[in-house]
C-alpha cells in the first residue's frame, strides 16, 4: 500500500474526533508580523485557515505587522520607540500604522486566503465600531486600550460563510481619533468578546519556555504569574501571556501560544493529540496529555 496513503489515513483517523468536537467552534488566530514570512509561508497559513472553515469551524484572523510598519517608517525617516512591548505612536506614526495594517498587510492576507479558495473579508477595528479605544497610557500617544467591543459584525461575517481578517487599528471614544492597538491585545479582546473556543497566538518561538529552554505544554494562570515573577517570562512574551490571561478570564476556553513559522501550525495544534506550543487555560483536565 502506498506510504503516503497510510500517513494520510492515520492523520485523518487521529483528526476525526477533533473534527467532530470543533464543528461550529469559534477560533481566533493572531497572525504576528514575525510569523508571516514569504509568499509560500503565507499560502501555507491561508490553507490552514481555509481548511478550518471547510470542516465547519469559524476562524477569525486578527493580524499584526510590526516589521512591515518598521520598514515603511524607516523609508519615511520616522523613528520609533518601544515602551513595554508597545510602539510609542505620534500622529505621523499612527497614519503609517493604519496605511500598512489596514492596507498592505490586511489585503495581503485576504488575497492569500481567497487564492486558497476561501472567502475572506478584511476589516479593521474601525468597521462597525468593532473595537472602540481609549488612550492606553499618555506616554504611548495614540496607542489604544479597547474599552468597548461590538463583535456582531464578526459574527455576521462568519455566519455568512466569510472569513473575517481584522487589522488592529481602532476608533476612539472621541470623534475622529485613530488608535494603534497591539495585535495580541486586539486578538485577546476580540476572542473575549466572542467567547471564543480557542485563541491561537502565532509567534516566532515554539511556545512559553522554562528556565532550561524547554516548551511548557500546559500552563494555568497561577503558573504564568510565577514565571513572570521569577523572570523566566520576559520581553515580548509578557504582553502575550498577559493577553492570554485576560482572554481566559473573559471566558475564552483556551489560549495557545504556538510557532507560526512551522508548517500547518494551526492544524497541528487543533487536530493532533499532542497539540503544539503552550496551552493556557484556567484548569487542566486529565483526560488526554493536552486535556482537550
Ligand atoms: N519564557 C519565554 N519563552 C519563550 N519566549 C520568551 C520567553 N521570555 C521571553 N521570550 C521572548 O518573547 C519573544 C516573543 O515575543 P515577540 O517577539 O513580541 O513576538 P511577536 O512578534 O510574535 O508578537 C520570543 O522571541 C522570545 O525572545
Ligand atoms: C501598539 C503597538 O505596538 N502596535 C503594533 C501593531 C502591530 C503589531 O502588533 O504587530 P506584530 O503582531 O507583528 O508585533 C505596532 O505598532 O507594531
CATH architecture assignment name of the domain at 3-79 and 107-121 and 182-280: 3-Layer(aba) Sandwich
Give the distinct bound molecules.
adenosine-5'-diphosphate, N-acetyl-L-glutamyl 5-phosphate
Instruction: Please state how the strands of the largest beta sheet are arranged side by side.
Output: 5-8-2-1-11-13-14-12
The tally of beta strands, per DSSP, is 14
Sheet with the most strands, sense and barrel status: 8 strands, mixed
Count of separate DSSP helical elements: 10
> Which residues form runs of ≥5 with pLDDT under 50?
none
Bin the helical content: 40-55%
Beta content = 15-25%
CATH superfamily of the domain at 3-79 and 107-121 and 182-280: Acetylglutamate kinase-like
For the record, what CATH class of the domain at 3-79 and 107-121 and 182-280 applies? Alpha Beta
Name the helix and strand elements from N-terminus to C-terminus, one letter apiece.
Answer: HEHHEHEEHEEEHEEEHEEHHEHE
Mean pLDDT: 90
**Shape call:** globular
Enzyme class: transferase
EC number: 2.7.2.8
Pathway: Amino-acid biosynthesis; L-arginine biosynthesis; N(2)-acetyl-L-ornithine from L-glutamate: step 2/4
Keywords: Amino-acid biosynthesis, Arginine biosynthesis, ATP-binding, Cytoplasm, Kinase, Nucleotide-binding, Transferase
Amino acid at each position: 500500500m502506498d506510504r503516503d496513503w497510510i500517513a494520510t489515513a492515520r492523520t485523518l483517523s487521529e483528526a476525526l474526533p477533533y473534527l467532530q468536537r470543533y464543528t461550529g467552534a469559534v477560533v481566533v488566530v493572531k497572525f504576528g508580523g514575525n510569523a508571516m514570512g514569504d509568499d509560500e509561508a503565507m499560502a501555507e497559513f491561508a490553507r490552514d485557515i481555509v481548511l478550518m472553515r471547510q470542516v465547519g469551524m469559524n476562524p477569525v484572523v486578527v493580524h499584526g505587522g510590526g516589521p512591515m510598519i518598521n520598514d515603511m517608517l524607516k523609508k519615511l525617516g520616522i523613528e520609533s520607540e518601544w515602551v513595554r512591548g508597545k510602539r510609542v505612536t505620534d500622529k505621523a506614526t499612527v497614519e503609517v500604522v493604519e496605511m500598512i495594517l489596514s492596507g498592505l498587510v490586511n489585503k495581503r492576507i485576504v488575497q492569500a486566503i481567497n487564492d486558497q479558495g476561501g472567502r475572506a473579508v478584511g476589516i479593521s477595528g474601525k468597521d462597525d465600531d468593532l473595537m472602540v479605544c481609549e488612550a492606553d497610557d499618555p506616554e504611548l500617544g495614540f496607542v489604544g486600550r479597547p474599552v468597548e467591543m461590538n463583535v456582531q459584525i464578526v459574527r455576521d461575517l462568519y455566519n455568512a460563510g466569510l472569513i473575517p481578517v481584522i487589522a488592529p487599528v481602532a476608533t476612539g471614544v472621541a470623534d475622529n481619533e485613530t488608535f494603534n492597538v497591539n495585535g495580541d491585545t486586539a486578538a485577546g479582546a476580540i476572542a473575549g468578546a466572542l467567547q471564543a473556543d480557542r485563541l491561537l497566538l502565532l509567534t516566532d518561538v515554539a511556545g512559553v519556555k522554562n528556565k532550561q529552554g524547554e516548551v511548557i505544554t500546559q500552563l494555568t494562570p497561577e503558573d504564568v504569574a510565577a514565571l513572570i515573577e521569577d523572570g523566566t517570562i520576559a520581553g515580548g512574551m509578557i504582553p502575550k501571556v498577559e493577553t492570554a490571561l485576560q482572554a481566559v478570564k473573559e471566558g475564552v476556553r483556551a489560549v495557545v501560544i504556538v510557532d507560526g513559522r512551522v508548517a500547518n501550525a494551526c492544524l497541528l495544534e487543533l487536530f493532533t493529540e499532542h497539540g503544539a506550543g503552550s496551552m493556557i487555560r484556567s484548569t487542566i483536565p486529565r483526560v488526554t496529555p493536552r486535556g482537550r
